[in-house]
Give the backbone structure.
Amino acid sequence: MVNERLKADAAMMMEALNEQMLGIAKIQRDRSRLTATATACDKRISVTVNADGILIDTRFADDIGDLSYQVIAAAMTEAVQAAARQVTEQTRLLMEPLRERKSRLPKLSALIEDAPDFGSVMPVAPPASVAPPNSPQRRYDDEDTGFGDAERFEGRRSMVSDRDD
């Protein structure tokens, strides 16, 4: 009797896992197609980002020359960040049904005595900074990572540079 119950539970879990994997594959496909567009400077600047928030299209109005380079640069940064926020929200909405389905599944700790609850120990990644390079907001203390006693790797430096030397 107990063996039949375990078989039924295992079959239910495998079916739920299969559904979850199919759902993840569909969401990944749909997410890869997402884009978001934002404008700035009274629509003189239009940018589009992909699902990863990477700029994939930039368009300037014919009168963009009326703006200074400084204004254009600040507006570009603002518009790309706005488009990235939009695509992040689209991704969140796309994943919501999967999160709801996952929340209905029993946890491993509910099925197996003394099994750990992995969700409670999983670290949460902090959001990426949108501050410019070398700004005070980009300075951080390595000890906050929980790996303060880890050795630094001083490997070979890259031969690739974006500097105009």
